[in-house]
Amino acid sequence: MAEKLKLPEKLDKVWANRGYYGTLKHNVKAVYNFYLGYFNGNPSDLDTLPQEESGAKYIEYMGGEKKVIKQAKLDYKKGEYRWVAQVLKHVVMANPKNTEAKNLLANAYEQLGYTAESSVWRNFYLTGADELRNGVADSKGTGGMMNLDTLLNMPMDDFLKFLSIKLNGTKAENKIMTFNLTFTDSKTNYMFDLDNSVLNFKKGKMAPNPDATLILDRITFYQIALGREDLSKMEAAGKVSISGDKEQFEDFLSLLDQFQPKVNIVTP
User: Fold this and answer.
1) 177-212 tens-digit pLDDT
2) Is 202 helix (H, G, I), strand (E, B) or coil?
């Protein structure tokens, strides 16, 4: 559909319809995905192998990395950048240490970026090229993309929903925990409990027999939950009063994933 659908010429020349941000190809696929899902009707696409596994198989069937790169170089000279990008991704997924393949794929991404009308497509292409040449910057310990201004303006309910997303369900399996939180600045109580690898909370409720109870201000809780501040240090500084099983709450904190804002998009 994305290859076939075109706007009528009269509409295509209207400035607001040009693909400077979104693109017709992208949006046609998005509309299909929204209503019908990713499956295109071909049963081969129902349960495809992950990119690393399929990449290794593609390269094996095509006669090895050297043969693929040799042919890709010829297609690159012919300006077939879309195909070069499509085929070389298998080499990189199969062997991310193949510098020759990575550099050629980066060149193809740059060419596609130069010709992209859409700024979003261009940014993806150039980000992919940069990753192939320089890797992904380590953002550990930054607390993700959550800055202090965002924290100060985030309602508690939204933050606790965010924690439920951060919960690593696999690590949390078979763990049952209940905690009470009292926030001194907003004078509100929350109970949250972990069961069946799901975190739920209730505002204005207090569990009769919690594993631990914490009394602290909202921002201190946010900082501790995000891994920006240490619970024991905050307790020693008088920022947190905790009763009950402190180790159980620390165990809960260890179940929260620390998201990386910068992730691999073109390498395993």
Assistant:
1) 999 999 999 999 999 999 999 999 999 999 999 999
2) strand
